[in-house]
Design goal:
CATH superfamily of the largest domain: HUPs
Shape: globular
Helix content: 40-55%
Number of domains: 2
Radius of gyration: 20 Å
Number of helices: 12
Bound molecules: iron/sulfur cluster, zinc ion
Structural class: alpha/beta
Largest sheet: 5 strands, parallel
């Protein structure tokens, strides 16, 4: 098939716009859309030091590559890559190498923060506890990224969530009746998050997963394609499948869910009593006396006989 915009061979078909695109035109489309999201949501406005969370997978490395391409020439801005090493052998130790390689080739400073230093490495944790690894991993990773943001004096932290991630999470939060989490997961820093947490920006939020993948392949981004051995999301997998089936039957439905999420966000009334306190153990921001990371860590240490 030929590209709908030129004579080159097409690499992807976009059913929502009924277009075939070649590698050049797909790249152009993705870059334009990411650039527009960054501007529209003021993701870098007034900000100088932008952290980029890179795991080494396709989303985060594409994000790093794109941010460097779109913003790299702006001398007022500094991009700093951060990788969290959760301590998962055969997975994260491999993907870290991909992250390191890309950061190095783009000349971007790269920092690695380890679960060993601030939490319990996942491999060790899983020997004692077989349930719900992602909720522990998520709490620890979030805490570490926030700590890194403080140490590296970041004005914002870019997270590589693509359109599919965002709408899956949106639906999951509705299914769990957790409306406040919807507000926390915004393209540009959560509206209910206090200043004690670094603002999170999501430059890829309007790019469907398969377009991120195609972009990475077309631009020779050397990402790690493995899956975490503990990826046991109970709810995310069926939700992902459901949305993919819907998209196949009704092209464009994913964009419509995204737009509906964005309108919900605009009209959400934010509760006023969300004050942030200081965790009595680590001194980090928390909504309760002790932050989630410290509560979990204390509990795990007791269970594991430390
Ligand atoms: Fe952590 Fe779960 Fe992601 Fe694995 S899949 S890295 S356990 S959050
Ligand atoms: Zn073309
Ligand atoms: Zn704490």
């Amino acid at each position: 098939m030929k590209c709908s915009e030129c004579n080159n061979e097409a690499v992807i078909y976009l059913s929502y716009s009924q277009k075939f695109l070649c590698s050049k035109h797909l790249s152009r489309l993705v870059e334009k859309r990411v650039g527009a999201s960054i501007r529209e949501y003021g993701m870098i406005e007034g900000r100088k030091r932008i952290g980029v969370a890179v795991s080494g997978g396709k989303d985060s490395l594409t994000m790093l590559y794109l941010l460097h391409k779109l913003l790299g020439k702006d001398r007022r801005l500094k991009l700093i890559a951060i990788t969290v090493d959760e301590g998962i052998k055969g997975y994260r130790d491999v993907s870290i190498r991909n992250a390191r390689r890309l950061a190095k080739s783009l000349g971007i400073e790269h920092h690695i923060y380890k679960f060993t230093d601030y939490a319990i490495p996942m491999d060790r944790l899983m020997k004692h506890k077989k349930t719900d690894p992602c909720s522990y991993c998520g709490v620890f990773r979030r805490w570490i990224l926030n700590k890194a943001a403080g140490e590296l004096k970041l004005d914002a932290l870019a997270i590589g969530h693509n359109l599919d991630d965002i709408i899956q999470t949106f639906l999951m939060n509705m299914m769990r009746n957790e409306p406040l989490r919807i507000a926390r997961f915004t393209p540009n820093g959560g509206i209910i998050e206090s200043e004690a947490f670094v603002s999170r920006i999501r430059p890829l939020f309007s790019i469907p997963e398969r377009e991120v993948m195609a972009y990475a392949l077309c631009n020779n981004i050397d990402f790690h394609n493995g899956e975490c051995p503990y990826a046991a999301y109970a709810l995310r997998n069926p939700v992902r499948e459901f949305l993919n089936n819907m998209e196949e039957k009704y092209p464009g439905v994913k964009f419509r869910v995204l737009n509906s999420y964005l309108s919900v966000l605009k009209n959400m009334k934010v509760p006023e009593n969300l004050t942030t306190r200081t965790c009595i153990t680590c001194g980090g921001p928390s909504s309760t006396e002790q932050c989630k990371r410290c509560i979990l860590l204390d509990k795990l240490k007791k269970q594991m006989g430390h």
